[in-house]
Amino acid sequence: MSKFKNTFRIESTRLINWDYSTPWWYLVTINTKNHIEFFGKVVNDKMYLNELGKIVDKFWEEIPNHFKNVGLDYYVIMPNHIHGIIIINPIVETGYIPSQDKQSETPYMASLPLGDIVGKFKAAVTRWAYKNGYSNFKWQSRFYDRIIRNENELFNIRRYIEQNPLKWELEKDKPENIFDL
């Protein structure tokens, strides 16, 4: 076990020996720090995004524009967290590594690991928030992920994401019901 930020010991939740840049489908849950409700309200089982929530939605939708081999599936933004399915697709040839010998140029496109994709999303939202008057906005320092193992699990996760606003009133005061670290 190692120390996290030299403060306390915490085990990694990542699957040992798994390369998180591997083409696959991943469920991610990203929480706000201390579960503060920054993104809007659930009213009558429907999520209503405020200004910051709309930015989170916009930036989430833009992820594939920044990572050409990444796609998105179901997602939901809740008052204090986001659940989403990120799809890392196989790498396609899009560029070349420059070489002094033009004959030996090789195709190249790096696939970023899931943590880098989520980190860049969180950083973009945070930058926007600070520039636009949300100086107290913070994400939780880590995020939850799950490698989606089969079609049945994908179906259940999609249903969970869709039904998240319906369960908000029952679960909002029970942090153990939110994927958390």
Automatic annotation (TrEMBL):
A GO MF label: transposase activity
GO biological process: DNA transposition
The organism's place on the tree of life at top rank: Bacteria
Transmembrane segments: none
Domain Transposase IS200-like: 21-164
Protein name per the record: Transposase IS200-like domain-containing protein
Source species: Stygiobacter electus
Upper taxonomic lineage: Bacteria, Pseudomonadati, Ignavibacteriota, Ignavibacteria, Ignavibacteriales
